[in-house]
Amino acid sequence: MEAEAGLLKVIVSSGKNLAIRDFISSDPYVVVKVGNQTAKTKVINSCLNPVWNEELTFHVKEHLGVMRMEVFDRDTFKFDDKMGHAFLDLQPLASASKLKQALQLTTAGETKLRRLTPDRDNCLLADSFITYTNGEIVLEAGLRLSDVESGELYVTVKWIDHPIASDHRKER
Question: Which of 144, 133, 156, 160 is nearest to 12 (CA)?
Answer without folding.
Answer: 156
